[in-house]
Amino acid sequence: MIVIRPAAPADAAAMSAVLTASIRDLCTADHRADPEILAGWLRNKTPEMVLKMLERPGAQFLVAERDGEIAAVGCLTGPDEIGLNYVAPAHRFAGVSKAMLAALEDRIRQAGADIARLTSTGTAHRFYLANGWQDAGPAEADRGMLCYPMEKRL
């Protein structure tokens, strides 16, 4: 069973572990094992930085629990924008990412927006396309990686 709930400060270490493992192990096509790109991407994913992120005004962090552990981390950075949606490698292909995406989309709907936005990694691009998202412009280079602006009519 997957349970989505608001993140709490006590979750920071587990959230950091999910973010770090997901980026390091699942996003290799994006960072290509380049130590500089990887270090830049992981720089703000420490438990201390996650605690600071949780305090960011306007940000809504969610966690997905599966089998008694935090399996995914999601975040809205504004009323219509998804800023994070990362899954732990051990929970990939178990419906956790879809559950988190649905919860984030629901929150955007509840905020009154009818179009949701995000910027996808290359790794996640197919996932979002398969879940009704569309490209909202050409891929853009960011920190040595290609990122895909996307949107979805809710």
Q: How would you describe the overall organization of this protein?
A:
This protein is α+β, with helices and mostly antiparallel strands and 154 residues long. 38% of the residues lie in helices and 32% in strands. The protein has 6 helices and 8 strands. Strands 1, 2, 3, 4, 5, 6, 7 and 8 form an 8-stranded mixed sheet that branches. Helix 5 (96-110) links the parallel strand 4 and strand 5 (115-121). Helix 1 packs across helix 4 (47-54).
Total count of helical runs of at least 4 residues: 6
| Total beta-strand segments | 8
Helix-strand sequence: EHHHHEEEHEHEEE
Please outline the major beta sheet: 8 strands, mixed
Structural class comes to alpha+beta
Q: Proportion of β residues? A: 25-35%
| Average pLDDT taken over every residue | 95
Outline of this structure?
The protein has 154 residues and is α+β, with helices and mostly antiparallel strands. The chain has helices at 12-26, 28-31, 35-42, 47-54, 96-110, 122-130; strands spanning 2-6, 60-66, 69-78, 81-87, 115-121, 134-135, 140-142, 145-153. Strands 1, 2, 3, 4, 5, 6, 7 and 8 form an eight-stranded mixed sheet that branches.
Task: Please write out the topology.
Elements: E1 2-6, H1 12-26, H2 28-31, H3 35-42, H4 47-54, E2 60-66, E3 69-78, E4 81-87, H5 96-110, E5 115-121, H6 122-130, E6 134-135, E7 140-142, E8 145-153
Parallel strand pairs: 4-5
Antiparallel strand pairs: 1-2, 2-3, 3-4, 5-8, 6-8, 7-8
Helix pairs in contact: 1-4
